[in-house]
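=== Discrete structure encoding ===
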Amino acid sequence: MALRKSTKAGVVGVVAAALAVTAFVAPAEARPDGPGPGAGHKATQRALDAAVRAGIPGVTAQARDGRGIWKAASGVGDLTSGKPRGKNDKFRAGSITKAFVSTVLLQLESEGKLSLDDTVERRLPGLVRGNGNDGRKIRVRQLLNHTSGLFDYLADPEYSRTYMEGDGYLTHRYDTLPPEKHVRIALSHKPLFKPGAKHSYSNTNYVLAGLIIERTTGRTYEDEVRDRIIEPLGLKDTSNPGNSIHLPRPSSRGYSKLFPATPDRIDDITEMNGSQGWADGDIISTAGDLNRFYRALLRGKLLPPKQLKEMKTTVATSGSSYTRYGLGISRLRTSCGTTLWGHGGGMIGWLSMVVSTEDGGHQLAYNYNGDWDTSHMPKIVDAEFCGTSR
């Protein structure tokens, strides 16, 4: 899912994928050699604490490097009881889901079941048509790197009012939304540009990617992710929620500022129908499982070299020359010049980030149980990989 800046000052939906990642910029005095793995994580803990002092209820995090696994938490997981945030909390990972979806499609390509150069029309006949949208001109690859030009369904004003804001969200949070509804909403708008012209983050792309998985395999997107990634890697704390409204335990409560006119109001939004995310952002996971996934992905455990290279072939993104987007994964640079691969994720009530060095030797994943402030997210990454807590 993706953020609508015009809707809220904070973050709604999944565009921590765009927002948290594109926030990374290298300063003029970038230091190419940071402290490296195992710097003690003290700066990282300070950065987590700073995010809480700035107003986020709580943060859970895990780092994994050559010295082992470090778990941390800060703040509270329940504003009513004051229960601390858990180090092993499960949470809605939002757009980090996109790397799982892209991995499945790249596996299918390696098996000769599809090509990234196939048109969307070939894989989903007749679906992407109308208002200037034409699936005959869009390639599967352009869905995965967000160069399709398709409108982001989350940016539709009526959809936002109904499912993402204020009383609309509170009324409709339990509704089951089929992926085809999201596609119809997107296609009610003209495309933003011709396919391939540039990059524009759109959750519609990954709804279509999920539908392509299902049409190609004859199985659900959830089954393919489970059988190809979750079970082989032993990601015991990772799942697709389907239509369930619940978070599996252990977990904390999630919070959102749904009413811009009353910015001090915070609502508990923990329960919501998982179908409102689907292949663009529905996965529930932990910091530990996300690190394990990225470690395996970048070490070539999930994709052959050809497909991993395709995943890491990037296009320019707007707003930052230090961030580029591949296929469900972003390349970014820290303030000390370290190159990382990762993705952000946001759902109403949750903000997450996972990043890894290219060799898969050092990962960091973390989650906020509040969605209204992304300013400290890049600082946490800098703290882990550069040893600074600016």
In short: The radius of gyration is 19 Å. The first strand starts at residue 58 and ends at 65. The chain has a mean pLDDT of 91. The CA atoms of residues 109 and 115 lie 5 Å apart.
